[in-house]
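Researcher: If only I could read backbone structure tokens as easily as an amino acid sequence. Walk me, if you will, through where the backbone shape changes along the chain. I have put the entry right below:
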Amino acid sequence: MNTARAYRHRLTAAVTAVLAVTAGASLTAAVPATAAPAAVRAPVRAADTVGVIAGDAHLVSAGATGYLSRRTSSNFVTTYYWTNFADGTTRALDPAYVYDGGRSDFVVAHKPTETRYQLLDMAHPDAAPVGLTYGDGNYSLAGVAGETLVMAYYDRNRVNALDAFLMTRPDGWSTSPVTRDLALPVAAHNLRVAATTPDTALIQYQTGTYPEPAEYFLATVELATGAITQTVPVGTRPPRNGIYLTATQVAWVSKPTDTTAELVTVPRGEEGQRSTVPLGAALPGSSLDVALLSGWALTSEAGGGTATYASSQFPLVARSLSNPSVTVRLLDHVDSMTSAPDGSQLVRGGSVGLGGGEGVYRIAMGLDGLPEATLVSTAGTKTELAFASAPNVPATVDLDASGGTASFSWALNRSNAQGTVTLRHTATGKVAQKTWSGYDGQVRETGVVTFDWGGLLAPSVGGMAGFAPSGDYTWEFKAKPLNGIGPDLVKSGTFKVVRKTGLHDYTNNGSPDLLSRDSSGRLFRDDTVKVPSSSEVYSPGRLQIGTGWQIYNRLEAVGDIAGAPAADLVARDSSGVLWEYLGKGDGTFAARVRIGAGWNAYDKITGGSDLTGDGRSDLLATDTSGVLWFYKGTGDYRAPFAGRIRVGGGWGVYNQITAVGNVAGTAHGDLVARDASGVLWLYQGTGNGTFATRVRVGGGWGSFTHLIGVGDADRDGLNDLYAVGASGSRLYPGTGSTTAPFKPGVFTSVNSDAARYDSTF
């Protein structure tokens, strides 16, 4: 059995049972005013031929063969279209005109600056238009009813005096005035055509001008004669939207309070008899549209598709007039709707899930006696939140090549939503998150959510952020519809971050890590962060990564000596054995490996610079006699250094030497050395493990206990120097100049408590 047909059979049976139980209920039966009745959901079917309509089109009028719609561009240019039911084709109308229609295939075209009106027969597009130039520019079009134009004229010599007449075309053009004895009151104003049937126009007007109280009325006008056949007083609140006319009833939506709504129906020709049907909650300032369909009332608060608030009245709901508690939910929102000549309703709206999505629907009675929605034209988009195109998330993000930033974007099918975008490092769970809203200018105007990621991650949302490590990542996009229509949109995906390992980088995030040991042997790690928006260097948080390190009398960061994408370190114990600790790339180290003995012959050890240009970190050491020795890196963790090579003597004048990588602008690693008077000297590498003649950097460096070549801390492509002393620490950015290799020091908060530690490296 066809699933949709079976569903409707079950739906019919359920509704019929309810109607049987409640057949004698009054039209004023109480329905809770705080919420719309729970509605049975009707399935949506498609017409044999489904046309295509733009997603921002609005319905104007419908005829037997097609419908009139309009679109307004971002620069406020309005274009009108006629769509044919039979083949689904749409054609644009002459943009020089404004168009209107009233429940027929005839469309009225008018240039706002002229008094000429044209009547176009859209069922016969090749037929010549019929037109009339009406000489008096004080007349304006109040509305269209079939082939009839309702014209209004204010006599400016009399306050609120109104002349109204009908223009029809029995033979060309003629006028049929509304006679005075049946005409609108002299004080009537704000005339407009509120609804039509093939032979009648329903005109809304008001009396009273401030400070007088306003009274609102609906008048039925016979199109053939211009006679007013019935005047219905509405009250002091204007119906505005939600006015409807059938062969037997006049109906409108009333708001007895700011938060409740009800449907008022008055029989045609029966003065004073009216019935009310509660419609549930209504937001202050909202208006409900209404249509009557064979004993059912269709209601919806228009504009729900683009609304930034939720309302229980957004769905298009059919209520049985014989029992208002029986309802059928037809669509999830309505943009605009208009009546067709056969009594059906044409609706521009949307249906969530397995329905037709966004488009134009015909609402008519089904064979089983229940209203049903048929998709006539599709906008080709979903009603629920969805991506308008594939997410713009690259499979691989090279944060070194992109300057440490990356841009992602997600295009939505509508902008009235809010949510979050979360990037998460798979290995550590650290995140970067952006909260966004459709109230924001960019999202509101484009429907595109962008995340310009600065390459930072935090242990939790709002925590102190550090640079993102390389590795696998997931992204998660969450969006909640502000109008409450449809489910939340939750999607995720993956990408990978790649970046080069830094000289002092133990976490594969490109930023230097500083290691500190206290007197009890605990080892700590600080991941330093320097962002362009601030001169300061900070740490996201100091982490203890080990204990028992008091057995070593020398600790030195030596860069990558094992060929893996992480920096390593070496440690010398009291017996002179040198141990290697290979970095694992997550801020911790593998079990130590013995490199060799006899290293107690050296009083200073430094490493990390590539002194030969082979891409491997090398080691330098000075012995107690002041000779500098060069150990070339091999890239083999089992024997990371080749045999030593003598560089030269006289290095005993220095109390500290530090390999700093390339700070002088050449392709080779350099060395700085501090003498006993606190003067710092630069030794520029030559590329073979030796150095050029020293260059004086400057004095005053004696206050620092540790000088550390940390690599490129500020991410400007030049290596920097980190200086730690009892009074705090400074970062000296590299310049690439031989004569002045460092900029002035920048305060950092990373080692402000350096006095607590006996070694920082």
Notes: The radius of gyration is 40 Å. Residues 722 and 731 are 5 Å apart (CA to CA). Residues 3-21 form the longest helix (19 residues). The chain has two helices and 59 strands.
